[in-house]
Design goal:
Oligomer: single chain
Strand content: under 5%
Radius of gyration: 40 Å
Order of helices and strands: HHHHH
Distance between the termini: 121 Å
Structural class: mainly alpha
């Protein structure tokens, strides 16, 4: 087997946990058998992974979820207001209503009321 290829740490970890496909597992095993440097790396990595597996994962305390959620919320971007939010549309609607009323008064000031045709003021 050619010694120009050497398995990466990721390859060795997958092989250690039996997650490499059959062809890769066979290739890694054959290479480790014939390469002293990779065999030493394999043995050292195996010992380290065994220690990690034995250490186990500690159970989080009762405040873990609250503390972590507070940290996540601080890291999230500020929420943007919805396009349909009343805080967005109410000022716009008030401005439109004010402009419409002002335009109506302006129209009446420039166009005085005229009596309707055919009506005379006598009865």
């Amino acid at each position: 087997m050619s010694t120009s290829w050497h398995p990466t740490d990721e390859d060795l970890i997958l092989h250690f946990y039996g997650e490499a496909d059959a062809a890769d597992a066979r290739r890694i095993a054959e290479h480790v058998d014939g390469c002293a440097a990779c065999r030493a790396a394999w043995m050292e990595l195996g010992e380290t992974l065994k220690l990690v597996d034995q250490a186990g994962m500690p159970e989080p305390g009762p405040e873990f979820e609250r503390v972590m959620w507070a940290r996540v919320q601080r890291a999230l971007p500020a929420p943007r207001p919805s396009v349909w939010s009343i805080r967005v549309w109410l000022p716009a609607a008030a401005t439109i209503a004010l402009v419409a009323v002002a335009a109506g008064y302006s129209w009446r000031a420039w166009h005085p009321a005229t009596p309707a045709a055919g009506k005379t003021g006598t009865t």
